[in-house]
């Protein structure tokens, strides 16, 4: 799989720090009362150790920022898990390891990519979900938390129904994705895409990124999607700048998906 770097990361604009500060400060001033702005980071396509993965984990660890890790079950082995876990230090509460599909394969012949779409029967979808959950539980034990992030952020209604039957705690997709969620399963969606942006013109990409970030912060729940395989030095600097912009702001709180799920369950 080629891992292309989006054009916006080729360079950091000279004024990116002031634009970032302005974006976060506006949300901070408008929010805080009466509710905090909650931010979660979700790293997708996890399971294979790599230099970029180690670098990502050490960045989150250094700032003690919670991270939700979407693991592809088939990619994970006992040996890989030992390696990944060793990177994460001794603060287990910082990480929410959860399920990213089954083998991250597209089963949809044409159009948008789906691993969990209409080209699959109910029994196939159920089997893939169950196998994924069982494999991750077996390898990761209590570190696994039953939340489902579908590959390419999309799945069909049947999958949502099965998630409920199989007692997943929540789903995480793109904000506003179809189908809706008539089963009422808890949903914590990403609304900021850092590394799979398609804009060819970097400045358009930056404008759109700050627009997304501003809207997500204003809406009170900001989900930031990460693809570590597509990160370069600039992309790492930007995440660190985000941490610094969020630091010590009373109305802004970083959480992971398990914390969101358990806060909701607790009322
Ligand atoms: Zn993915």
The structure class reads: alpha/beta
Q: Kindly report the name of the CATH homologous superfamily.
A: Glycoside hydrolase/deacetylase
Q: In the CATH classification, which architecture applies?
A: Alpha-Beta Barrel
Q: Tally the helices: what do you get?
A: 8
Residues in helix, % = 25-40%
Bound molecules: zinc ion
End-to-end C-alpha gap = 42 Å
Beta strands, count:
9
Structure report:
The protein has 267 residues and is an alpha/beta fold. It has one domain: Glycoside hydrolase/deacetylase (TIM Barrel, Alpha-Beta Barrel). 40% of the residues lie in helices and 15% in strands. It contains 8 helices and 9 strands. Strands 1, 2, 3, 4, 5, 6, 7, 8 and 9 form a 9-stranded parallel beta sheet that branches. Helix 4 links the parallel strand 3 and strand 4. It is globular, with a radius of gyration of 18 Å. Bound molecules: zinc ion. Zinc ion binds next to strand 1.
């Amino acid at each position: 799989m080629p891992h292309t770097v989006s054009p916006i990361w080729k360079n950091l604009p000279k004024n990116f720090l002031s634009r970032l500060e302005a974006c976060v400060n506006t949300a901070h001033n408008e929010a805080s009362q009466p509710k905090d702005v909650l931010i979660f980071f979700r790293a997708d396509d996890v399971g294979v150790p790599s230099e970029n993965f180690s670098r990502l984990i050490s960045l989150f660890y250094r700032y003690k920022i919670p991270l939700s890790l979407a693991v592809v079950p088939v990619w994970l082995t006992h040996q890989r898990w030992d390696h990944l876990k060793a990177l994460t230090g001794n603060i287990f509460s910082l990480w929410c390891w959860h399920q990213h599909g089954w083998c991250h394969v597209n089963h949809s012949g044409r159009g948008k990519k789906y691993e969990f779409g209409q080209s699959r029967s109910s029994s196939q979808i159920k089997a893939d979900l169950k196998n994924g959950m069982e494999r991750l539980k077996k390898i990761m034990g209590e570190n696994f938390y039953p939340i489902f992030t579908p590959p390419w952020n999309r799945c069909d209604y049947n999958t949502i129904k099965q998630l409920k039957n199989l007692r997943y705690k929540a789903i995480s997709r793109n904000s506003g994705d179809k189908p809706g969620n008539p089963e009422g399963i808890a949903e914590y969606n990403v609304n900021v895409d850092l590394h799979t942006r398609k804009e060819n013109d970097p400045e358009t990409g930056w404008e759109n990124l700050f627009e997304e970030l501003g809207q997500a912060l204003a809406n009170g729940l900001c989900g930031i999607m990460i693809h570590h395989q597509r990160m370069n030095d600039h992309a790492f600097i930007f995440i660190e700048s985000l941490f610094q912009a969020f630091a010590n702001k009373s109305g802004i709180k970083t959480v992971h998906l398990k914390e969101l799920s358990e806060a909701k369950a607790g009322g």
